[in-house]
Amino acid sequence: MRHFGWEGPVGITLPAVVKKGVAHTAANIDRHWVGTDADALFAKQLGRATDDIAVLNDADAAGMAEIRFGDPAGRTGVTTLLTFGTGIGSAVFQDGKLVPNTEFGHLEVGGHDAEKKAAASVKDNEGLSYPEWAKRVNRYLTVLENLIWPDLFIVGGGVSKKSEKWVPLLKIRTPVVVASLQNNAGIVGAAVAAAEGIEH
Q1: How far apart are CA 15 and CA 105, in angstroms?
Q2: pTM for the complete prediction?
Q3: What is the DSSP track for 111-154?
Q4: Considering only CA atoms, which of 133, 137, 111, 106 is closest in space to residue 28?
Q5: Residue-range domains of the chain with CATH
Q6: What is the mean pLDDT, run by run of 10 residues, along the chain of 200 residues?
Q7: Is 44 helix (H, G, I), strand (E, B) or coil?
Q8: I need a labelling partner for 45 at 20 to 30 A (CA). Which of 80, 86, 146, 166 fits?
């Protein structure tokens, strides 16, 4: 990071369950990440102390940014952020406090891992129209809302840039808002985690 003239803490996200800097899952990244001390790895690569590194789940980071800088409605009750991309990331908050490392993209829906049917990558890979894909997302959200009864869903990820093509098609009881930071939420959340020394 010295290349950029930055000497402060560094926030890094992984699409994995991360506890005390160690990756415990690897759903959409190489399996060799499982068991890796990501804090130590990145600290070594960046020439930093591990205290200067904050590694956390990518959806948790996105959710932290949205709770802090996004729609104020997300700060009370049960709020669930979902990122739709290669997979489906999730972050759950109770009155603005994160419950770390939820993996709700892996819920079973119709006999399948939810993200195998409703991730944004599936829409692209199967050539689904937005209405076709929205039906799958709707089914997934219905299962999730019946499980945790959230007060608000925040939807993010790259596909949130085209939210007008699919969010209005959702027919669920829980209000849905689009992530105000869209696909940049994870970067912002990582910076917040680094600045505040947040670790799970």
Answers
A1: 11
A2: 0.92
A3: TEEHHHHHSHHHHHHTT--HHHHHHHHHHHHHHHHHHH--SEEE
A4: 106
A5: 2-58+187-196 (3.30.420.40), 59-182 (3.30.420.40)
A6: 71 94 93 96 91 94 96 96 96 96 95 96 97 98 98 95 97 97 92 85
A7: helix
A8: 86
